[in-house]
Amino acid sequence: MSRKIGVVGAGLMGAEIALVFALAGHDVLLCDREVASLERALTRLSTLLEKGVGRGLYAGAEVEPALARIRPTTELNAFADREIVTEAVFEDIEVKRAVLEALCDLCRPECILASNTSTIPISTLAASLPLERRASFLGTHYFSPVSRMKLVEVIPGFDTQDSTLEAMIKVMAEIGKTPVRVKDVAGFAVNRMLHMFLIEAVKLVEEGVATPEDIDIACRLGLGHPIGPFALMDAVTSSLSLQAQEIMQEAYGERFRPPALLKQRVRAGYVGGKGRPGWLMQGG
To answer: Is the pTM of this model over 0.90?
Structure first.
């Protein structure tokens, strides 16, 4: 059954969330404030699909018409007929709240609203929504790259109805994801474990125990991880890692205090990401 899906935010996460729904046969609206951002997103998704087909990553999926199912728009007003809308904008509580408040005014009462936040409690985001809309609001935390990572943490808020949670878990399974229900706490489950790991990895470098390169090798060969902690921070950016740790430090205290070296590198611009220096690369 084809559903009318909306995604707000055409960044790395939002664009690929739109893609997995489109690959599953759904009609998708992808919204961003700037046309250029939408154009970049669609170009990247086209390249991603071409490479994925060559590697056999999308077996059984309707790859060819998938991009045609993703319609770009700069107008949230276009979301009035959507059945499920995912907010996937910058990890900032005020930015997310502004988008969610606008969606509450525009979308139908029965529309399920979801946030792709990775650390902010869902009930904290829900606090700015009308009471009657909180029942149909929850969190769906995808993992990058969304087109390949199966896990989605599904997080009900204090006021999320069971029917909303059950419906979203069903939808996640339908689009090929493995949903795991997680309690509504800062960082949820995976990021709480991950950032303890990342914090300790940076401390090992601070203490001169090993280099970032050797720690990554050790984690891949000794722990069976597909990617080391420093390669991971370069991929998602150290600035995002720092932001997540600061949010969890506020919630849980000293155990999530970001290491001084991480703060120093972020302030110096060594954050990773495309074309920027990180732990393992000096740009490119």
So the answer is: yes
